[in-house]
């Protein structure tokens, strides 16, 4: 199935999508569009081995959660195929650089490093991204 068709199907079924990625996710991308595309396809989180610095920030700006495998782990080492169903519980009072537990529908679970690195990034995310944050801020004035 094409990516577009799969994304449309998951969105129509109300199923959020995550991306499993390797090292330096977002490197060589066209910057902000590399985050807008996944947002428009219903991606809610990216679990990567590492992120290109600006791309990680752009994901947050689009309301996408950047999660990083712990050192020495990746999708292959954890036996992830992408066919699993993932549950990621994001605490309401999450702090920058907090570890989270990702649960799978087959009973497995693993820890990830949540890559909200600053309080400002958490503020943007809590508003659904930087655009929603700025609109709310403008309306309030």
From TrEMBL:
InterPro entries per UniProt: Aconitase/3IPM_dehydase_swvl (IPR015928), Aconitase/IRP2 (IPR006249), AconitaseA/IPMdHydase_ssu_swvl (IPR000573)
Superkingdom of origin organism: Eukaryota
Span of domain Aconitase A/isopropylmalate dehydratase small subunit swivel: 2-70
The protein's name: Aconitase A/isopropylmalate dehydratase small subunit swivel domain-containing protein
């Amino acid at each position: 199935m094409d990516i577009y068709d799969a994304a449309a199907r998951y969105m129509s079924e109300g199923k959020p999508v995550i991306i499993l990625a390797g090292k330096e996710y977002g490197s060589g991308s066209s910057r902000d569009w590399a985050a807008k595309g996944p947002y428009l396809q219903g991606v809610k989180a990216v679990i990567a081995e590492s992120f290109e610095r600006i791309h990680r920030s752009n994901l947050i700006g689009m309301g996408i959660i950047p999660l990083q495998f712990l050192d020495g782990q990746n999708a292959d080492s954890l036996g992830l195929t992408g066919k699993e169903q993932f549950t990621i519980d994001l605490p309401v009072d999450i702090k920058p650089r907090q570890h989270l537990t990702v649960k799978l529908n087959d009973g497995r679970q693993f820890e990830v490093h949540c890559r909200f690195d600053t309080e400002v990034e958490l503020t943007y995310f809590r508003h659904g991204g930087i655009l929603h944050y700025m609109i709310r801020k403008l309306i309030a004035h």
